[in-house]
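Predict structure. Input: Putative transmembrane transport protein, 422 residues.
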Amino acid sequence: MSRTATTRTAPAPAAVGTGLVVAILLVAANLRATLTGVGTLLPDIEHSTGLAASWGGVLGTLPLLAFAVTSPFVGRVAHRFGPARVLVASLASLAAGTVVRSLPSTACLFAGTAVLSAAVAFGNVLLPSIIRQRVPPARIHAVSSLYVTVMGLVAAVSSGISVPLAGAVPGGWRTSLAWGLVVAVVALAVWLPRARGDRPAATAGTSPSPAPWRSWLAWQVSFFMGLQSLGFYTVVAWLPSILAHQGMSTTGAGWMLFFYQVVALAAALLLPLVTRGRQDQRWVAAAASVLVAGGFAVLLAAPGLPVLACVLLGLGGGVCLVLALTFQSQRATGPGEVAALAGMAQSVGYLVAAAGPLLLGILHDATGGWTASLLLLVALNAAMAGFGYGAGRDRLVGAAHAVEPRGPAVGTAERAGKAEKV
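Output follows.
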């Protein structure tokens, strides 16, 4: 059933305070801090625990599967207890899971990873909903860009310091895995007072917003989220191997991966300057997807130009990540609907992302090279351009009446008429 935005949406805030931005960025810092250091520590983990390489792969894939399984339930839980309260509980669970993962037990390694990954999934879904609820529509892009930048910076820092930290502290890699606990505790302390006035939507007698599975716009948002995630996790997992196969040294390949992440962060930070005040991002999303496809094409056709490939991959990937998260806030009619759309988009998205690196590895083993894998990535990112064009339209999932927007930074009520027929 379609519903107008005015029936479910609270008045948009007039401004966004510094304290709220800091609180949002602290949550963003926790969405990758406990995850990205695992890859660099994996050789030490396997050597210390005796895990086979296949189990090491499971450890790396477990967070993505946890995201996919957990995300659809976040909206209902937030509806019943309130998004800020649930966010506080997820931060506490993240801290607990981080501690459990560092205990001297292989079972705890996997159990703690599962717990903290589920907690991160809650944060992934809740943050777009909280941004939609508490940030003015004209500032959603800027705040989303900031939180993606912080998320990426912390992820890069975690990757960089994990191995040196493991060699410098008692407990080795186990202690190194626990450093993110500091970030989680700080975020928890900041959000505890903000949760006190959080009123659950269930107390108003409303029902939770269902996931918009019958909405084509929601599927476009979901597939765009999934394909950009697939591209990112594929680059992180396989770019050094691809460059090494083409003759680059292992050290050089590692620096290329670092360079790619720096370019992506710069693109994410600069995106609001390009899209300021605009609700329609069709061409930006399509163009960014084409850039990613071009980066993979350069890796395939011109292996002597890895810097150009990383520039294209980083520029397109950074923009696509911000847009994928922003669409989850902008394409729904209110905070409850944002949580439902984000749950669907991230469930579908991370299932796609989890399958991508595995599929490319299988293709590499079957063909003995990276040509087939890179051709597939070019095709998938060309398809992402189509999904991004659709997801970038100034439309709302389930909106009922058609009304033209009156300016570049119109609010949700004015945009409710950019209808989608479901």
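Residues 1-11, 400-417 have pLDDT under 50 and may be disordered.
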